[in-house]
Amino acid sequence: MERFQKLILLPLILTASLPGLGFCYSIVNGPANVTVLAGSEARFNCTVSVGWVILIWLSNGNPVLTVISSQGAVETSDRFTSQNYTSSNGFTSELIIHNTQLSDSGKIECSTQQPSDSSFAFLSVQVNGSLFIKNSTLTVKKNKTVEIVCEALGWAPAPDITWMTNESLIDKSRYVTQQSQGSNGLHNALSILTLTPTDTEILTCLADIEALPNPQNATVTVIFVNSTIENDYSEDSRSTWVIVLAVVLSLVGIILLIIIIAVVVRCCCLKKKGSTYQNEIRKVSAEKKKDGDLENRQRHGSENQGYIPEELWNTEQIPRIASLPPMSSKFTVPAADLHISSVPKVQPQRRTDYLISPKKIRNVTLV
Question: Phi/psi of residue 130, each to 5°?
Fold first, then answer.
């Protein structure tokens, strides 16, 4: 790309220089040094006297933009543009470098193609890296020394590290800073502050480069803890935990007791309900059985407790029985000879004076 730019600019330079050999013009004000952050714009001004013919801008020896009095600016890259200003004192060309990169750092030259008539300045492109402290809060006991580490990564050039406490600068003898080369030409820095605090304070690590309007910073709060206060706090904290634990256990015990009582009551209710149901079933069954017995009694009559089977009679009474006359069709028993018993279980006295046929026997019992 640079070779292509040179091939384009060379004929223009030769064409513009030939008719201007008889004229005398020079650079009145050349460019000034510029320091910018990577990614921003860099501007350089060059003023030439009246009668100028050509002005060429070079970056690290490579032409990047040409301005011809008869044609204006000849731009070969979008990153390099110009603005022109004309006054009674001469002509001013402003070179604008867009989206500056670390590789753009170096010599920026303004030339009129006249012998020994050029002016140059330097461009410094710097990179703003990261800065951090690992712990944002530290707790330090009495008479204890602590080391606080501040780390800067990816800077160009290496940043200047300083420390402050409560808005006051800390002496450089209390911290050590180490720098190292990183990748892509970037630098890293590590600063270690040794501190024995006597009170709670806020520490600030500052990293600064020329292109930064304000230093980048990282802060840490150092909390100073007195041992006596810490012990009191520990005892109070322990007592508080004991109280909380006792309350929690009490609540858990009450809840468990309520649950156990509820379960026992429910089991008793279910048992009572089941027992009542079984009693009702038994009662209904008993009533049904009683009704069935009553119905059987009504159908078959009551049992004659005074009945004696024929086989159980005394066999000695049989020989005394004489021959019987023919049976009368009517069998009568005087009312006076009937034996009436109010107790059914007592066996009635059988009269042996009557001749009774052994084949037909009628027992009458009044209940």
Answer: -110, 155
Residue type, 357: S
Q: Which two tokens stand for residue 167?
A: 């808005």
Task: Spell 212-241 as b/e; 16+ CB within 10 A means b.
Answer: eeebbebebebebeeeeeeeeeeeeeeeee
Q: What is the pLDDT of residues 252-306, one digit of tens each?
A: 999 999 999 999 888 888 777 666 666 777 777 777 777 666 666 656 555 556 6
Which residue pairs, CB below 8 angstroms and at least 24 apart, start in 225-228? 225/139, 225/140, 225/141, 225/142, 226/141, 226/142, 227/141, 227/142
Give the helix ranges, DSSP H, for the chain. 2-17, 227-300
Coil/strand/helix, residue 44: strand
Task: Kindly list the distances between the CA atom of residue 333 and the CA atoms of 305, 354, 364, in Å, as whole numbers in the listed order.
Answer: 22, 10, 10
Six-digit token pair at 216?
Answer: 């980048």
**Residue ranges of E strands in 60-97:** 62-68, 72-75, 80-87, 90-97
φ and ψ at residue 94, rounded to 5 degrees: -110, 120
Residue length, the chain? 367
Q: What's the CA angle centered on 153, arms 148 and 157, to 5 degrees?
A: 115
CA angle, residues 83, 85, 89, in degrees to nearest 5: 150
Q: What angle do CA 242, 247, 250 make, to 5 degrees?
A: 125
The tokens of 12 are what? 């223009």
Count CB neighbours of 54 within 10 A.
25
Q: Are residues 117 and 55 in contact, defined by beta-carbon separation less than 8 angstroms?
A: no
44/24 Cα distance (integer angstroms): 24
| Tokens (6 digits) for 261 | 């009582």
What are the structure tokens assigned to 30, written together?
Answer: 């050349």
pLDDT digits (tens, 9 = 90+) for 33-64: 999 999 999 999 999 999 899 999 999 999 99
